[in-house]
Design a protein that fits this description.
heterodimer, A: about 40 residues, little secondary structure, about 10% helix, B: about 180 residues, 2 domains
């Protein structure tokens, strides 16, 4: 004691960037009866 | 009478879409699903509503439900290809994703979502050369202000994985 330090494999970060491109239809706010104002 | 009823339905559907929009902005996806189903009760073929339902299932991580709905209601080859491929990816049906995407890309489509997905699938399948190639292209095209840092993170993860696996790729030469 204390235990010895040992090397472990580090898994690098990897993001699911594709999920950013899963989006609701762009005309959703139109269907909700609102004029397109770009904030939707 | 019939026209009055249908215009009445239109009003209700518009209100329900308003609810859907508000609820998804609040990330209340289960509640949004209920409003979407109300729209579909009034008009089962409302395409926007079906589209919303697919996306809501994805947000709820119900990928099999999303996939079933796409296959049932968007059977036309060119509809919701990316969404379909993404669901297959999350269900770990990677071979099918590869087939779907290579067909899609061979038709001259080059949107960011499907290319990111291709790179992610390649990474999972340990096809590091292809992942590096796709990311390299995405980095060249991306603006500095969008998710360039995230792309670089993934790019470096692929490089690390490739080196760790003992692949003899010409990283420094090509990229």
């Amino acid at each position: 004691f204390p235990p010895e330090f040992t090397a472990i494999p580090a898994k690098p970060l990897f993001f699911d960037i594709a999920s950013n491109y899963i989006n609701y239809p762009s005309n959703l706010s139109q269907r909700a009866g609102r004029k397109q104002d770009g904030s939707g | 009478m019939a026209t009055q009823e249908s215009s009445n339905n239109e009003t209700i559907i518009t209100q329900l879409f308003g609810d859907v929009e508000r609820l998804v902005n609040q990330e209340e996806y289960s509640k949004a699903l209920r409003s979407i189903d109300k729209i579909l009760q009034l008009n089962p073929t409302d395409n926007d509503s079906l589209y919303c339902k697919v996306i809501t299932y994805v947000r709820l991580e119900k990928y099999q439900n999303a996939l079933d709905l796409i296959n049932k209601k968007f059977s036309n080859e060119d509809q919701l290809i990316f969404e379909k491929a993404y669901c297959l990816y999350r269900l770990n049906r990677l071979k099918e994703v590869t087939e779907l995407l290579s067909k899609y890309h061979s038709k001259g489509n080059h949107d960011f979502g499907t290319r990111h997905l291709e790179a992610q699938v390649s990474y999972k399948l340990e096809e590091y050369d292809n992942a590096l190639k796709v990311y390299y292209g995405l980095i060249q095209e991306s603006n500095k202000n969008d998710d360039n840092n995230n792309i670089l993170t993934n790019f470096n993860a692929v490089k690390a994985a490739a080196l760790f696996s003992g692949n003899n790729i010409n990283i420094s030469k090509n990229y």
